[in-house]
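Q: Here's a chain of 176 amino acids. Please give me its 3D structure as tokens.
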Amino acid sequence: KQWYQRRVAITAGGAPERDRCQPLSQSDLWKLSGSAFGSLAGCMAAYFVAKCLGRLKPTRGSNILQIITFGLMFKCFNDTYLFGVATVIKIINAFICMMIWFIIPESFPTMIRNTATGMINSSGKLGAVLGTAMVYLLFYASPVAVVICFVVISAITCICSFLLTKETQDVALMDT
């Protein structure tokens, strides 16, 4: 009942001041730029690691590292710590996404590769919409619930990464 009353108050424009949109300061913009650069660094690291070590081991290792890093979100010392952990998560996430883009197209023959890639793209967009909605709903119930959700989903993806058994680096596929 309390959650519902708070929810009604928020949708009616009664959100607490800390939950309302605020203009970004110069410091916030620098942090946002740094985090975006982290995504680029994660993608570039994935490319070089995939060339040297293959695809499976780095994907599995980065999934385990992502669970640990999300676990660090349970303890928040200050804004700088939170920004650092969030940036590391962004780097690892970009690394994992890039590895998936290497593995999946290399796993399918040419005839169905475009369909498989389209399915990955569609699943990613659906996940983005559902994930955003879930975070929005969970945050007002409990911010800790959001972190728990991230840890659980990371654990599921980690388990799925161990289900991949075929190393795709330097493997030639048949056309059909």
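Q: Can you summarize the key feature?
A: The mean pLDDT is 78.
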